[in-house]
Please model this.
Amino acid sequence: MKSMLDKLAAILRRDVLTAIRYRTGFVLTLFGVLIELAAFYYLSRAIGPGFRPEGVEYFPFLLVGTGLYTFFVMSAQAFLSAVQEAQQTGTLEVLMTTATAPAELLVLSAISAFSGSLVNLVIYLFAGIAVFRAAVHANFLSCVVVVILSLAIALAVGVLAATFQVAVQKGSALIWLLGSGLWFLSGTMFPVQSLPRPLGVLARAVPFTYAIDAMRGALIEGRPLIAMLPTLAALAAFGLVLLPLALGSLSFSLRRARQCGTLSLY
Amino acid sequence: MNRVTFESVGKVFRHRPALFNWVGHERTGDTFALNNVSFSASSAEVIGLLGPNGSGKTTALKLISTLLLPDSGSVRVGGFDSLRDSGKVRRQVGIAVATERSFFPRLSARENLDFFAALDEVPRRERPRRIQEVLCDTGLEEQADTLAMKFSSGMYQRLGLARALIKRPSILLLDEPTRSLDAAATSHLWETIRALARQNTTVFLATHNFSEAAAVAGRLLLLNHGALLEDRVLSGRERADDLRSLYFQRTGEHAVADDAAAVAIHRAEAAS
Model:
């Protein structure tokens, strides 16, 4: 356990140092958050106060939906990019010769990538509340629980994307599916109740729908854990199924890549 | 006891046909990277791997490091099977690959080494001392805090060696380690290899440089088309020319090399 924490600290340090040494990119990312929020703020004003999806103001609704969905997509994308870059530079092969088991290494790297995206999410939500005055009544305990469960889902998605990358060199296909195929099913910008019935059923099979729903409940409406139990239970169930599935697939694809000699192919 | 044992090892790379292969044309079929190769290596041995491009040298190194797994036969490292106990194998093996870019460009040499040392489970307290030690061994003390992206090819190569040494491996795998090094650095590396062998490290050195093989190797493995053509203990009196003669005689590459050189000279003359 101590050794694993030591490795995680080394990976986090590497990622933080790399991020801050891309000085311009670091500043532009922060600037980009404000631009995006401004766009959503003026969109909600243009639509007007009469539109109250799920009984809440539209801007906070958008703030949570887009923030959390971006967190899912960007964290998987960031992790996948790191894996692709490591394949292209040959770093992945060298990493796979260290004493750390390949699957452990990738999971720790994913945790680090997601921690970065989590910081972005917190900045995004904080800026939305502090700068654009989004009306929230946060229940912090509920927020923390939702974030932890969302992290588990994000980790599973990221590891699955890495599995695709190692297995068929096309992890970006999964990111594409997330970025363009699933966002409208997960209630990011409008409530899933507005979807036709078959799509509504499909939306209930997407874990992000529950995560966004739960985060809106916790952050905007201040709902306690007990009031969100069915949603949290569904989210936890997704995590319990997806995480072992992702880890098992990753271990299998890494072993197969070492057998076929495709570890560094991209 | 043998540190590394190859028993009838076979490794095949399969080229699966592309979709719509009639649009472009991608080769299909199998490449036999290693075919029924057997040898063993003891502690303190420096083994030179010679052979033309694609002969199986790098594949052999990757099999020892568990980057590749054998299709047939077995690879045992320090008594552990590479298929079943790959984690235990990796703890004993350090590898310096020829890939220059296999570092994190926005980290300094010291930060890169610290990162890899953590993954190699070098205790945190011991890391600064070990890093300083390998930086000295590879002549990189002055560049320790320079970002890796500002390194020259030779410095990358030295950093690769430093990374391989930081876990104090009992088996060191070097793939063309002096390709980008200047004369002084090459000489220093050869001395480092001899010193490691004196400390019981088994060193595998894949090279195209006959002088290098003659200077440091105590044993020679000659590969061609995945087959082991020669496994010979060197007396220490062999010179580069002796190894060159053996190489061309056994691989049959000499005539091709001469023809290719003649064509190149003819083209150069025609162009001028």
